[in-house]
């Protein structure tokens, strides 16, 4: 670890960038020795400061689960991050873009866990047994780094660019759907921007859930009953600005419309 950087200072720098809505340079530019283990410690410190400020943990998300996202960001492995109630945007509530730096939206398949799930050794089939309901979701990411330019430890420390998320209102039991085939279309102001199916998420979103349970177990973290899990963006993240209407239409999970103010 460099002399001038430590876990607390890095977490404070990221929280300050978020509060001021000002992007900053990647931590690894100044702290080249930041490795993944310490990056997750920074992420945990960021979330514990949010909890101290009154937020509650409501689940976890995966990031970089699709090849499209890995290519877009120039990184090569999925990551996990925390979700809090402070990030939740109720369906129908407008996104205030002035609270964010440079938001991007992405469609997600969201699980609600009916039972706890803890690795190691969790398979996708075992993971899906812990899922009580599946929803369509929309995540708004907002990297605290200039131009979303980062290395893997940077984005891990930055809680995987988490900013806001909305969960749709049409929940389905997992056995009612083939999630590999579940499709979504992303529209901005009525124009189709992108589309994908659940195969984009590691072949099946259940694989992402299993990966989350197994990788979190290395940090002695278990997924808890009642938690939400955002399984990862199905398409590239799409930049959005005030005035945009974003609509994500799923085949069987309904649609979510987000007005950006
Ligand atoms: O796009 C990014 O900022 C990478 C972090 C992961 C975001 C996500 O897939 O939710
Ligand atoms: Mg995401």
UniProtKB/TrEMBL annotation:
Highest rank taxon of the organism: Bacteria
UniProt xrefs under InterPro entries: Fumarylacetoacetase-like_C, Fumarylacetoacetase_C_sf, Hydratase-Decarb/MhpD_sf
UniProt keyword list: Lyase
Any one GO molecular function term: 2-oxopent-4-enoate hydratase activity
Keyword Lyase: yes
Fumarylacetoacetase-like C-terminal domain residues: 102-257
Cellular component, GO, one term: cytoplasm
Keyword Iron in annotation: no
Identification of the protein by name: 4-oxalocrotonate decarboxylase
Lineage: Bacteria, Bacillati, Actinomycetota, Actinomycetes, Mycobacteriales
């Amino acid at each position: 670890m460099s002399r001038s950087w430590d876990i607390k200072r890095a977490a404070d720098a990221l929280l300050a960038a978020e509060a001021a809505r000002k992007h900053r340079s990647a931590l690894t530019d100044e702290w080249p020795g930041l490795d993944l283990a310490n990056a997750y410690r920074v992420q945990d410190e960021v979330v514990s400061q949010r909890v101290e400020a009154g937020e509650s943990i409501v689940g976890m998300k995966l990031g970089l689960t699709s090849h499209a996202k890995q290519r877009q960001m120039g990184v090569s492995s999925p990551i996990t991050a925390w979700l809090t109630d402070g990030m939740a945007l109720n369906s129908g509530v407008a996104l205030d873009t002035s609270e964010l730096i440079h938001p991007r939206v992405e469609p997600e398949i969201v699980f609600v866990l009916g039972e706890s799930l803890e690795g190691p050794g969790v398979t996708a089939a075992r993971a899906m047994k812990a899922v009580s309901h599946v929803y369509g979701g929309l995540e708004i990411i907002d990297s605290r780094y200039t131009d979303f330019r980062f290395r893997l430890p940077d984005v891990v420390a930055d809680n995987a660019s988490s900013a806001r998320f909305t969960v749709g209102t049409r929940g389905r039991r997992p056995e009612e759907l083939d999630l590999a085939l579940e499709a979504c279309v992303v529209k901005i102001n009525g124009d189709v921007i992108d589309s994908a199916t659940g195969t984009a998420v590691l072949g099946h979103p259940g694989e992402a859930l299993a990966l989350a349970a197994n990788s979190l177990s290395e940090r002695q973290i278990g997924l808890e009953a009642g938690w939400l899990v955002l399984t990862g963006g199905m398409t590239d993240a799409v930049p959005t600005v005030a005035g945009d209407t974003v609509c994500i239409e799923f085949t069987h999970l309904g649609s979510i419309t987000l007005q950006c103010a």
